[in-house]
């Protein structure tokens, strides 16, 4: 199938990234977690090899490819058991938004580092009282002379501790009308008034989540990315890639879990044939495989639409891909754990921790229900209940 859809270059990139993933593997992530570390070595090596920056423009140190290539990188690392979650935010959201809407100065300052991985940027939109409903965000940016002053709170923001800066979604306060508009600001990690508290997540992931408080955070005029009046358009230029990348995260993890389960089902024998010979064991694996491959196809379509610049069509496809991949991943991991029987719950086989991790793709960055709402209203034209 992939021969028809992908070019030889894609296949070569897939194989090269898969080889890197195999060298690290799940054991690397497990060890990093036990030591309370992040996946720095893998991140740095992937950066040096050009994989982190594959979607960013060549003139700023990137590979000149698109979200298709970047999603392929995340999928293959995930399929090897070592996904890099921050690929979703640093190059895919922040890199895309800066490349499309940043000033020349912002591009020169940030894109080469985001491309080679030497700099990382996190992304903060979610707020305690504005989760699924991001129209309700209250983080506010006020002009004070040449500066911006930001106040507000964010929650569940990934990787703030290891990010050089966070791209914060706020609202500007229009001095004349008092009207609020969404706008994006680069907030360097050590800016006075920018406080973070690590959340105690029950997740076996190297990347941590944070609650942020912005308390009179003063930023120079050039911290604003893009036009303060074009917030939504700019936001979605980053959010469509985010959904495609979350789909890639889910497809990769699902492939990893299914490969482990299929290998086990071929070996494990408690009657006269391996357990994988029983249809009650093989059919759920076959269903899971079909659903993962179907979701992947939608992900590839969405990535392609992002890369040709059809933001509207990409939005719909990226939402559907994220939904399909999230659901396929949750089911594939559940099926894999069950295939291993008791071993599915041991640390040695390492699948049980994926049960929680898989659900991230169902909740973030936009929940399953909000995608169903979007498709109901935008695609099917049904009325809104809220
Ligand atoms: C591991 C992890 C990493 C994350 N990283 C980031 C990050 O880096 N940056 C960032 O900004 N955010 C991040 N998030 C936040 C994530 O995007 C939010 O958790 C998500 O948008 C859901 O918001 P919420 O948690 O407030 O849930 P809520 O909005 O409170 O929703 C709770 C439940 O109610 C349902 N619901 C709500 N409204 C409706 C409705 N109208 N119709 C039907 N159902 C509804 C939802 O589907 C959900 O099941 C992360 C979250 C996680 C878990």
TrEMBL record:
Keywords: FAD, Flavoprotein, Oxidoreductase
CDD domains: ACAD (cd00567)
Highest rank taxon of the organism: Bacteria
Co-factor requirement: FAD
Domain Acyl-CoA dehydrogenase/oxidase N-terminal: residue ranges: 7-117
Domain Acyl-CoA dehydrogenase/oxidase C-terminal: 231-375
Residues of the Acyl-CoA oxidase/dehydrogenase middle domain: 122-217
Gene3D superfamilies xref list: Acyl-CoA dehydrogenase/oxidase, N-terminal domain (1.10.540.10), Butyryl-CoA Dehydrogenase, subunit A, domain 2 (2.40.110.10), Butyryl-CoA Dehydrogenase, subunit A, domain 3 (1.20.140.10)
InterPro entries: Acyl-CoA_dehydrogenase, Acyl-CoA_Oxase/DH_mid-dom, Acyl-CoA_Oxase/DH_mid-dom_sf, AcylCo_DH-like_C, AcylCo_DH/oxidase_C, AcylCoA_DH/ox_N, AcylCoA_DH/ox_N_sf, AcylCoA_DH/oxidase_NM_dom_sf
Protein family membership: Belongs to the acyl-CoA dehydrogenase family.
Protein name, as recorded: Acyl-CoA dehydrogenase
